[in-house]
Specification:
Layout lengths: L1 H14 L4 H9 L39 E2 L6 E5 L2 E6 L2 E6 L2 E5 L6 E2 L7 E5 L2 E6 L2 E8 L2 E9 L1
Antiparallel strand pairs: 1-5, 2-3, 3-4, 4-5, 6-10, 7-8, 8-9, 9-10
């Protein structure tokens, strides 16, 4: 339980504070749609959900490990260690039956890009990036920059 609170505190510090307007509506008892913000593309109504999702307008970083979507999230497929993951704007999903669960990435995974809202830190004399508690190191290959997961905070 202590680790959960510590993880939440770290996420809030590195990712910014949660959306206050959504929290205020919840406290007042206002109606909130439970579509995930990472799926708010196009004019659709969003996916059906297996677990409660963050309110409309909440940031994608409000997604937490264990949340599940009933429909496939958009994003790129990453294969690592014989397992397929979907990476979408800093959130990693793994297929669990017919649902997609938000999971923690594996150290060593390489992603094509990072979300716009990431933090920069110097580690061992080189630049690293942090998003959602995941530490990335830039890799330059064939004239392109990708990012390798190197740890967690």
């Amino acid at each position: 339980m202590k680790n959960i609170f510590l993880s939440i505190a770290i996420l809030l510090v590195t990712a910014g504070l949660a959306a206050p307007s959504a929290m205020a509506r919840t406290m007042r008892g206002g109606a909130i749609s439970h579509r995930p913000s990472v799926e708010m593309r196009g004019t659709g109504h969003g996916p059906r959900v297996g677990k409660p999702m963050p309110p409309v307008g909440a940031r994608a970083r409000a997604m937490h490990y264990g949340m599940r979507l009933a429909s496939r999230p958009s994003g790129v497929v990453l294969n690592y260690g014989g397992v397929s993951f979907i990476y979408d704007n800093g959130v990693y999903y793994s297929s669990i039956g017919r649902e997609y669960e938000v999971v923690r990435p594996q150290v060593g995974m390489i992603v094509p890009s990072l979300p716009m809202r990431h933090s920069v830190m110097m580690r061992n004399g080189s630049r690293h990036y942090i998003h959602n508690g995941v530490i990335y190191r830039p890799i330059h290959r064939n004239g392109n920059v990708t990012f390798r997961v190197v740890g967690f905070i």
